[in-house]
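Internal tracking record. Fields below are filled automatically when a chain is submitted to the structure queue. Please do not edit lines marked as system-generated. If the sequence contains nonstandard residues, flag them in the REMARKS field before resubmitting.
Queue: standard
Priority: normal
Entity type: single polypeptide chain
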Amino acid sequence: MAGLWWMCLCARFAAAAADSSYQDWQFTNNANPALPTVATNTAGVATATMVVGYAGAGWLDSLMGFGTQTGLWDLGLQNSDDLTNDTRGQVLLSVPNPVPVTSNTNTYTDLGLRVVQFVDGIFYVGDLTFSIPGATYSGRTVVETLPGPLPGKWVEDQFKWRLEPSPMPVSLTITGAVGGTLLDRIRVDTVSAVVAAPPLMITSVVKSSQGLAITWAGGVPPYQIYVTSNLLSTGAWQPVGLPVSGTNAGITLADPVNYVKVGGSN
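SYSTEM-GENERATED OUTPUT FOLLOWS
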């Protein structure tokens, strides 16, 4: 194997295309589960299941003295006489997630949630909690405030998360505040994209008496090692050994070779 050369095989980058969805619940009626009032989602239809908690009035067409908002959900509150049980209301969101055609472990989804709720700082303090399996919280922004009865106001908050890999579907549970939650609107959008794999590069080749120990980095598993005696058209690349999921492998060579490369699945 004198004069051995080695090559690096750069991974092909996935297409930069992304898939997205949008759903807007304006709660124009008391349907439960509720379908979005407006939606764009090629993967299916999202739903919002309302779980009304203690002393909650459920769906309300409007509420006198609370501004011009219509289509409200009074989710209820925590029963102060039953602190051993969580009696707060919840919204269970299930959103089919359009994901680019690729390995599902090679994608991520950015999830945006906008919630319009009444906040007065006394009873309705707006401290919602969220449960999203596998999500990393990215932040909260107050988007808009609308007039309501003094000292309260309608507040639109935007929350963001990243889910990696992309789930199908996205499951999100919103749990109401201890003092009560009055919801006017919920919007959910998702943007799913492919995670570009780093270039695949051989980092070391160590020759032994019977073969080679090869180490590499980058790319997407599983990997396959190939060898050839020349780079001309007559020198076909031949696979050696079985595909591996790790980033190193040892191969035994019966004949001398001049070139070796590692191929990833992308």
